[in-house]
């Protein structure tokens, strides 16, 4: 009996020729493996899709908060009553050949540029930019009755935008395209200054706030038209037809000579644009022959101050005070008298007599 184990038999010798047992994947195992791999790939794809969806949602909310999304709004839900338009003679613009061209373009190719709107205090959409596009679509809807003209693509301003910024946005597009006349730009400044929601009441000071991106020469032209429109009021019936140079010349003449009342009287009875501009041109020519109006003398200043080196000088009637860190008591009297004499002579007071104290 073998002592290999208690059963009396030893281990069987493996057949060396048999080699190691080959383990191959059967049909069921292959199917399970493929299913596992497919599940792993699907899981990874789902994880990636969820990550992408989360990023898209984040980007969407950011675009929504920043007012970068475009929405389709029914025309009937948009009003134009809150913000005064930057164009004069709106009815003429609405019936112009340019409006017909814009309508034809929208009819053939659709609306290519969005308008901009904002929500007023009552929660209604108010038009900020794109009056011509809004008007063209409104006319097309009325003329054709087609549903495709019943709404407008718009960008909605989010939050409570500053009132002045809305004026700037309104005129910015047309200013860049040079589509506004100087009279229209001046009228926007006048209207904005009269808006109780804006802290500036001076139309002239409103010009750089509205048109800060323009060259200073253009801002100067706008100021001239601001003065012109304020001086002539409603008697200037066709301000858009006043050429830049003519408007600037009339404004300059009104500042230098008297005659605004007479000019307004003549303009009030002008039958048409041509007659209006002839009246303005004649006023400019006549003003060149008139002496300039005397300007009231400036009131004398009670006092003024300035610095010379490290000395502060205060001048007023009967007194010229010098404050300095120097100790004038230590200056020799003769030197001090010489300085005072030079001071008097520079003022043209002659040779004063210094009295000893």
Structural class: alpha/beta
Oligomer description? single chain
In the residues, how many domains can be counted?
A: 3
How many whole angstroms does the radius of gyration measure?
Answer: 42 Å
Taking the sheet with the most strands, its summary is: 5 strands, mixed
The gross shape turns out to be flat
Could you report the average pLDDT, rounded to the nearest whole number? 82
| Total E-strand runs | 8
H/E element string? HEEHHEEHEHHHHHHHEEEH
Helical content (DSSP H or I, runs of 4+): 40-55%
How would you sum up this structure, described in words?
- The protein has 357 residues and is α/β, with parallel strands linked by helices.
- The protein folds into three domains: 52-161, Conserved hypothetical protein from pyrococcus furiosus pfu- 392566-001, ParB domain (Alpha-Beta Complex), CATH 3.90.1530; 163-295, no CATH class; 303-346, no CATH class.
- Helix content is 49%, strand content 11%.
- The chain contains twelve helices and eight strands.
- Strand 6 (303-308) and strand 7 (311-316) form a beta hairpin.
- The longest helix is centred in the N-terminal third of the chain and has 39 residues, at 27-65.
- It is flat.
- It holds the Pfam family ParB_N.
- Residues 43-63 have a biased composition (Basic and acidic residues).
- This is ParB N-terminal domain-containing protein.
